[in-house]
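Before a computer can learn anything about folding, someone has to put a protein's shape into writing. The outcome of that step, for a single protein, is printed below:
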Amino acid sequence: MLRSLILSGYRLFLGTLLVVTTTTLHAQTPDFARLIVDDEQADLTGTWKPSTSVSGYFGSGYRHASGPELHTATFTLLAPSAGEYHLLIAFTPGTNRAANVPVVIDTADGERTIRIDQQKTPAGPLGLYDAGKFNLAEGETSVVFSTEDAKGVVIIDGVGLLSVAQFAAAQQARPLVGAAATKLAVTPKKNDPSQPPAAPIETAPPFVRVKLEVPPAALTPGQLDDLLAAEIPELATASTTSDELFVRRVSLDLIGRNPTRGEMQAFVQSTSPNKRAELIDQLLASPEFGTNWGHYFSDVVSYRVPSPELTFLNYQPFRDWLSECLNRNMPWDELTYRVLTAQGKVGEHPEATFVGFHQGEKSRLAAETTRVFMATQIQCAECHDHKFIDLSQETFHHFAAFFARSQAKIAQNNSSLIEVVAKTSGEYTMPGKKEQMEPMAFEMAKVEIGASDITRRVELARWVVSPENPFFAKALVNRVWARLMGRGFCEPVDEIGELADRVMPRVHSQVAEHFIAHDFDVKSVFRLIANTQTYQRELNGDVKDAGRKLPKIITTRLRGDEVFQSLVAAIELPNVTPPPTKATAAVRFPPPPQSTRDLVDEAFGYDPSISMRDVSRTMVQAMFMMNNEQIQRQIDARPESGTHLAKILSSTQDDREAIGLLFQDVLVRRPTPSEEEIALQHIASVKNRPSAYEDLLWGLLNSAEFTTRR
């Protein structure tokens, strides 16, 4: 009944449209525009990048795809009655376009494949390409574009059906593409009574945590030590770290930098019997905790996000938002819920970064949602059933259907204007299939086909963050454990499923239950682990033989932001940002200038999800530390330079004292007797005190120890 009413209304609309005379074509153009299905409404597989770089497009932009992988775009059109229709296609032409784009049309006589040349300017009515007449059955029909065998870039912009009578009228109408037509097509006139009122924007309801009937048990640090001792008897042979080693380790882990000399000395000299627990609480309460771990979780996302065409993604708003949330101790389940259900412009709603920077791409959002928030990788099932575990291709695409109506409007060269919005229609189809995929997460949560974008994403987010979800709490715990203890319970750190290299599953489960018991309080996990004797031990000697369960943690590399912050603490390195490069005819969109922090992060940064054994030292890092201009300026020992080094030399003439101060500033420890003697011998041999200390400071900064967490 509903289908008949819709078709009847559509026929009435077309009948009204056809009585419009050619003398009122200006008013008629928006009616033609409504007959075009824009690329934003297409169901996509593969990677279609949004763009507005070539003018003459329909609507708010177009999309393009190329390369050896298969990308498809399915437009669903409606024929109000059986008969012949002209198929009109919008695309922006160019010399890099494919001249043989395959298009498959679902006609009343079966599928028909045509190929169109997108290098030539469309010459049909309304400024569109006339693909010819097709005999269509009443109701929905599909038009599928693909990159299969296409030699060049394939463009999708818009597709429409016109009856024979409409087609005749359209030949005298103004174009629907180009800047003026685009504005006319998508911007209703103000106070126009003929325009229906805008529908209210649907927003996600406030987050509400689901409580378990039987809450899990929390742990004390002592109980966690007992669990670990049962797994790793060798821990009994390990001694507790020195205060110097502990303050550096816990400062790097919690606030992402070496402690300053003053902070180190205050801790070492403290006589409080609980000074380690007190320091942990102090660091967790510091704003630097949120900054450090906000940067970490931003990197977890950003290292797997491809950049859109002509747009440099700026993650700083997202980092700032994450930092604020972590410092306010927003529970991890609420934070995740807000990320997965966010809408709006990224600059105004940074929580929309995850969906927005993934450009609303369904398959990628499905894969990254499970990887980031559940440490479960399902991307291998996108193209075929998983080869090694029981994970079907249908399971992947059911999950992707949760994002069927999510889209991101890309703002060229300004990522803060990328906007996450909802499509009002459209469903998700699996590549090579016609049936619509029901949004479903591993047969544990689902919504009906036809549900709104927010309904889908809210239902998905509620399932993801549920305490009954076997993956959510364990995923966060695994990441924190890996960073603090040297390796995760599961490796790689973003895979806790069947393919993971697992150790101590019982301990993993109980720490995850502790996290749930504390209502997903992130700081509670850090506080629990950092207060254990295991974390505070020197993991060397016989303990290294514990092997894969708990290897030596002294070999982990510092992340790029940790190296920068440690340089600030050691030598007061300034963060200098050069002026932006002006655009030229040759470079229309120059990249944003890189600050000192950016350069350090570029040299030392790495994907936090990869295994520590895959993070290696590089020649780029060595050359950066040796030659970077800002670092070299801070190694200047001349009194007039005003550097931290110059202040040390002017404060004392005692070389043993000065050497000790430098070691404490850079390596957060005092020199060994042999190190002190080598330094004294060098100072004596150079016979130039400032130059000798420049050598010494340069050597300490370039040591492997400075960029290593031990």
